[in-house]
Task: inverse folding
C-alpha cells in the first residue's frame, strides 16, 4: 500500500507540474499590459513552481523505483517532500488562491493531498 500511495502522489504531482507550465504564456497575457520585466518575472515564477512540482514528484518516484521505499534515506525524502508541499500549499493559499482563478484555488488542495499520500507512503 505504501508504494501505491507514493506512485499515485508522484504521478499527480508531475502531471500538476506540467499542467502548471503549459499555460504560462496565457497566464502572463492574462495580466494585460505590463512591462517586459514584469512579464519575465511572472514567467520565471510560474515555470519555477511547475518545475519544482515536477522535481519533487520525480524525486519521490525515482527513490521509490530505484531504492527501498522504507529505508532511512527514502523516508527522509518522502517526509521532506511532504513538508515542502505543505509549505507551498500554505504559500499558495495565502497568495494566488485568493484570486478568482480556479486552478490556483485548488492548487493548495492538490499539494496537501499529495503531501498526505507521501506521509502515508512513509508510515505504512
Result:
Amino acid at each position: 500500500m505504501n508504494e501505491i500511495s507514493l506512485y499515485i502522489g508522484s504521478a499527480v504531482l508531475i502531471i500538476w507540474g506540467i499542467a502548471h507550465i503549459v499555460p504560462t504564456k496565457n497566464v502572463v497575457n492574462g495580466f494585460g499590459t505590463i512591462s517586459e520585466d514584469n512579464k519575465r518575472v511572472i514567467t520565471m515564477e510560474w515555470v519555477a513552481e511547475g518545475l519544482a512540482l515536477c522535481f519533487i514528484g520525480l524525486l519521490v518516484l525515482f527513490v521509490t523505483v530505484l531504492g527501498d521505499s522504507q529505508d532511512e534515506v527514502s523516508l527522509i525524502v518522502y517526509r521532506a517532500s511532504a513538508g515542502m508541499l505543505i509549505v507551498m500549499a500554505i504559500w499558495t493559499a495565502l497568495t494566488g488562491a485568493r484570486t478568482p482563478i480556479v486552478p490556483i484555488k485548488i492548487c493548495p488542495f492538490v499539494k496537501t493531498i499529495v503531501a498526505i499520500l507521501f506521509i502515508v507512503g512513509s508510515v505504512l
In short: Residues 2-123 form one domain. The radius of gyration is 16 Å.
